[in-house]
Design goal:
Strand content: 15-25%
Distance between the termini: 164 Å
Number of strands: 13
Structural class: alpha/beta
Shape: elongated
Order of helices and strands: HHEEEHEEHEHEHEHEHEHHHHEEE
Length: about 400
């Protein structure tokens, strides 16, 4: 018996504390990656880093909790001891102390658990499908002209948006399709309105939203039917639901999330405002440039008006006429000298040409003899006895027949 026990101990896995702690942490995180825990807050402490530490307890047990600053900055209510809350987070182990605790990612007062669970479940499912992916979102047009509004016709949201649109001088065309924004059937009305605009109106942009309210009031924008209508819309969609701290499923699916309906309207007109300002600046620059040009031309005209030509036009024309006569005489003299120079040059050239001309030899008593074909004869061997030849004298020509050829 002792021998068997010894063998079992010899084959048993022996863990280090850190090893077993890591394995326990892995088991807890795989089993309780997302849990909802209800309890009473006690030992509440907010660290200077912004992290919150407290204990969550009920009548029979308690669990330590950590609410990091990055997660608790969106907390909508004040946390204090004795408050009944529902925490959403993961259960894990803090290795240094070897204690398990919940790392809170979101917290709500007790009573909102069912809606929050539905919200997170739908959010997780749609996110896995890729409906929140940035690459599927359509760009918001910079200069939309035709805007579709899907909201309540009596709420403050529509009044706030129309007030902003009316301030602009450029032509915006706004189409309102009134729907209910809370209560039973509201989600289906919103979805149908999105689809209707996509089928019948060539719009540049849709704004879907309402003013602020409780989680229950905003719930229509957390419905799957609205999320899928936004996702399939061929028209870019701005979600403008509630206040800045309110997030809905519609916000995640929409092509752009505006914090409020007013912010959505401001987003629509922002680039129009910039364009209007730019055009105003260009108009002002053009006006200034035109003023500079007009001033310059006005000064030039004033100089012309005060010039001698405008004050004494006849005298000025007489001076011009006298100057024309003077230039004409100069031109005539120049042409006369030019012609004389060219005539002398021509005579010199003619003298040189005559000196080199064969005709000059004839003047001195020489003659030129050509054969019957007109070729100049330089040698007696170029002709034959009996051939007719022609001799050119200073005056006239003589034709003769060759009777004898000498050396």
């Amino acid at each position: 018996m002792n021998q068997i026990a010894s063998e079992q101990v010899g084959t048993q896995k022996i863990f280090k504390v850190s090893e077993i702690t890591r394995q326990i942490r892995a088991l807890l995180e795989s089993k309780y990656s997302v849990v909802w825990i209800e309890g009473e807050v006690s030992n509440f402490k907010r660290h200077s880093s912004g992290h919150i530490y407290f204990t969550l307890k009920d009548e029979l047990a308690q669990i330590n909790a950590v609410f990091f600053a990055g997660d608790n900055r969106h907390l909508k209510f004040e946390l204090k001891d004795g408050l009944q809350v529902i925490c959403i987070g993961r259960v894990s182990v803090y290795d240094k102390r070897g204690q398990y605790q919940i790392y809170v990612q979101r917290m709500e007062p007790k009573g909102l658990g069912a809606l929050q669970l539905a919200f997170l479940q739908l959010k997780e499912r749609l996110e896995k499908e890729g409906l929140f992916a940035p690459e599927r979102k359509k760009p918001i047009p910079l200069y939309p002209r035709r805007i579709g509004l899907i909201t309540s016709p009596t709420g403050a949201a529509i009044q706030d948006m129309l007030k902003i649109f009316r301030k602009r001088t450029f032509g915006l065309h706004v189409f309102l399709l009134p729907v209910r924004v809370q209560g039973d059937g509201a989600a289906q009305e919103i979805s149908d309105a999105i689809d209707w605009f996509g089928r019948f109106e060539p719009l540049d942009l849709l704004i879907v939203g309402r003013g602020g309210g409780s989680l229950e009031d905003l719930w229509a924008f957390n419905e799957e039917v609205v999320a899928r209508a936004i996702a399939r819309s061929r028209i870019p969609v701005i979600s403008a639901v509630g206040h800045e701290v309110d997030w809905t499923i519609a916000d995640f699916v929409a092509d752009f999330r505006a914090h409020t309906p007013t912010a959505a309207a401001e987003q629509v007109v922002s680039h129009w405002d910039e364009l209007e300002m730019r055009l105003r600046q260009l108009r002002e620059r053009m006006r200034n440039q035109m003023k500079v040009i007009f001033d310059m031309k006005r000064e030039a005209l004033a100089r012309l008006k005060d010039s001698y030509a405008f004050r004494q036009p006849k005298a000025y024309l007489q001076q011009l006429a006298q100057r024309v006569d003077e230039l004409a005489r100069q031109l005539q003299n120049y042409l006369r000298g030019f012609v004389e120079t060219k005539r002398q040059q021509f005579q010199n050239l003619m003298g040189k040409l005559n000196a080199l001309s064969p005709l000059a030899s004839l003047e001195r008593g020489y003659s030129l003899t050509f054969d019957a074909e007109g070729r100049l004869l330089k040698d007696a061997k170029q002709t034959e006895i009996g051939e007719v030849i022609r001799t050119r004298l200073r005056k006239g020509t003589i034709e003769s027949k060759v009777l004898e050829l000498g050396a």
